[in-house]
Amino acid sequence: MVVVKNKDLTVGDPKKTLVYFTIPLFVSVIFQQLYSIADSVIAGKFAGESALAAVGASYPITMIFMAVAVGSQIGCSVVISRYFGSGNIKATKTCVTTSLIAGFVISALLTLLGVLFSPQMMNLVNTPQDIFNDGNLYLKIYTGGFVFLYIYNVTTGIFNSLGDSKTPLWLLIGSSVGNIILDAFFVIVLKWGVAGVAWATFIAQGASGIISVILLYIRLKSMVISENAPIFSTKSLKEIASIAIPSILQQSFISIGNMFVQYLVNGFGSSVIAGYSAAIKLNTFAITGFTTLGNGISSFTAQNLGAGKIDRIKTAFKAGLVFSVSIAIVFFAVYFIFGKQLLYMFMNEDSTELAMNTGLNFLRIVSPFYIIVCTKLICDGVLRGSESMGCFMASTFTDLVLRVVLAFVLSNFWNETGIWIGWPISWFMGAALSVFFYVNGIWLKKFNAHHGENAG
Length: 456
Prior knowledge:
globular; mainly alpha
């Protein structure tokens, strides 16, 4: 058995330390997105275009729930990284247990909310009647397992804050493989359709969430200190909330913005919905990869700020930017050249030409601008890791508001194509703000004010 240990990100060559830390994070995203894509591939291939559209119609709603999980993950990760980087193990352990206790309460409430009000949420995104029942069923089962998804995301953030990006990777590999096997069994063998896709996700995430908590408990027991750390702390909760709430709002508003976009897309019929659903899965694959690299920068930044090592952050930022831009170029080339072949994975012989053209048009409009969005997300990683949440939210909300407004305006002139055109424009404006905040050193000013020292 391989024993994975906590990793101090404040020592060693900063470039190598960052790359070695973020590679498992990126591979984790690949597996995470694989089982998300597998849901749509198996639904589209073996349950038909309407099933693909049903899963896609509920997607922006599931992303709101995911936003709460990811925002909470960011909050606990930044605070725990800072304490761990400063060598305060007692406060580190208290923040970990506080995060888990608060997380169980929040996720249980949201699970109940999702199960009870899934029909109303499907109505909010203007879901067509021919796919409403399947979409509602998928959403109800998905949200029924949200407590497991939430806890898994929080524990992943905790492991990352301790410098361990390998344990979440192994958990994701197991979850992804299990999800794909269950997808195939429930949908292809048992013919459960959309319900099979949802139950596969529920079971895989449930197992992963339970195992992650057990492994985290073992990790905490191995961190021996001279005095017992409090299990829950209001002070720790406030610190975590000061990062988590803006992050949740940021993630949620993006998801709400996507709901407005989905509302517009749904107005063009099930074939356009199916094409968009397939393309947005591929797009999310790329964007989530960049976001995860940004989260790695956040943990690196927070640990090194805790240790007062500013120069390491600047060096790692440059390395992270080169790394992410290289990946962005690969995604662009693959989507632009092989987009049609990739979209075929989601569709069967009964899929319409309109569905294929919709997905291909989306990919070819947005993928050339991945370099811009990954630059924004790497800058955001430093801003978030330094707790400069006002700057972080300003750039993100600029991106979001512009994307929604442009979608409504431009769709009047170019139908669904107008919606896609708004994406790169909003990315550019949001990225310009993030780069300005980083270059202007606002994140350093925040650090100096908080610590009362000249970090130069």
